[in-house]
Amino acid sequence: MRLTLSDADWGELWQEDTTIAQSDFSEQVCQFSGKIGRGSDRYIPLRNGLYLIICDYQLWEDVTLDNLSSYDYPNYLCISFVVSGKVRTIHHGLTDYVFEVPGKNHIEFVSEGRETEDWSAGDRIIKIRVGITTEVLREMSHESVATLPKELRLLVEERELPPFYRLETTTPEMYMALQQIVNCPYQGWTRQFYLESKALELLILWISQANKLDKTPELCVLSPSDIDCLYRAKDLLTCNLRQPPSLLELARQVGLNDRKLKQGFRQVFGTTVFGYLHDRRMQQAQQLLIAGQMNVKETARLVGYASQSSFNAAFKKTFGVNPKALQRGVKQ
User: Fold this and answer.
1) Which residues form the HTH araC/xylS-type domain (predicted)?
2) If pLDDT is split at 50, 70 and 90, which confidence band does 242 have?
3) How many CB atoms lie within 10 A of CB 14?
4) Helices 258-269 & 224-239 angle (0-180, nearest 10)
5) Would you say 268 and 96 are in contact if contact means Cβ atoms under 8 Å apart?
6) How far is Cα 119 from Cα 124, in angstroms, rounded to an integer?
7) Residue 258 scores a pLDDT above 70
């Protein structure tokens, strides 16, 4: 049975056990436990306006968390990198459902709005958050503010920042830095400097990637009719996971040109056409395997994979477990 909780419900079900100063650098670990699971937030303040937060949660029950957000203009930038687990989230009126899974990172700003998150029982959610104050970011960029990604540029210039949610792919270089943070071999001041260097590395890698993506053409103007076409494209993909149409064929079927389909799909749904197709395939595969009606080979074929090894690799990257292991766990 899935629990649906508000912010207030969520807070009441957790009890903070301890807040522990871990080092001379004011590193803190806040540990939580409650009726629905356990978790911890490790806050690591660094020099130069930088900080790291390592979040580690595991729930005992399926939970849907319904948030009503209300934030002032942010005085910091925070990028969240998913290391383990999966959360399905939607910012109502801003994105469709997106999957925050290993291999993805996200940054967001929603001054007011509603967000819904779906957490699965037993799934261990680990995220590493890299933050920096806008004041320090402004000083670091100095006369090169114009070269920052558009959201960061608006942030440091204290201009109006419209609501946004940006989900990107974590590169192999980012992944290596994340693993080095998790497995930091040092203590004391050497640990502090090591983590600071890795936080800066992640920030630089993310900004570099965002700048490359921002060099793509400007957002296209979408009419209500265009948006209806994009929703039809999404429905066509959902109904044809095994043999989806090509981009050109999909564009023709819904009455859009190739460029408007690709750019518009990302604008409306927060992911690419192929990213959405992949997520839907993985979601359906997970449901089929849990139901136990098909074996792994049959499931792979049904969701459009000719190669079982490719399916196994994609499934493990998405959910952190092999499909056979998932099925064995359900049967036990």
Assistant:
1) 231-329
2) confident
3) 16
4) 90
5) yes
6) 10
7) yes
pLDDT-derived band at 18, boundaries 50, 70, 90 = very low
Q: Which two tokens stand for residue 90?
A: 């939607």
Pairing of strands 50-59, 124-133: antiparallel
Q: Read off the DSSP letter of residue 40.
A: E
What pLDDT is stored for residue 80 in this prediction? 96
In 86-243, where does DSSP find H-type helix?
134-141, 150-156, 172-182, 188-214, 224-239
Picking from 140, 137, 209, the residue whose alpha carbon sits closest to that of residue 172 is: 209
Architecture per CATH, 224-331:
Orthogonal Bundle (1.10)
Structure tokens at 130: 């890299």
What percent helix, strand, coil does the chain show, rounded to 5?
Answer: 45, 30, 25
50-59 and 98-100 beta bridge pairing: unpaired
In single-letter form, the type of residue at position 152 comes to: L
Between strands 3-6 and 63-70, the pairing is: parallel
Give the other-Cβ count within 10 Å of 254's Cβ.
20
What six digits make up the tokens of 135? Answer: 């004041």
* Matching fold, domains 3-214 and 224-331: no
Q: Angle 257-273-97 (CA atoms, 0-180°, nearest 5)?
A: 125
Which of 129, 76, 132 lies closest to 100, judged by CA? 129
> Is 236 in contact with 245 (CB distance < 8 Å)?
yes
| pTM score, whole prediction | 0.66
**What superfamily in CATH does domain 3-214 come from?**
Jelly Rolls (2.60.120.10)
Which residue, chain included where needed, has tokens 């006369």? Answer: 143
Residue 109 has pLDDT above 60, yes or no: yes
pLDDT, tens digit, for every residue of 269-291?
Answer: 878 888 888 888 988 888 888 88
Dist CA 122 CA 1 (whole Å) = 14
Supply the DSSP string of 46-87, one letter for each residue.
-STTEEEEEEEEEESS-EEEEEEEE-PPPSEEEEEEEEE--E
Does pLDDT of 22 surpass 80?
no
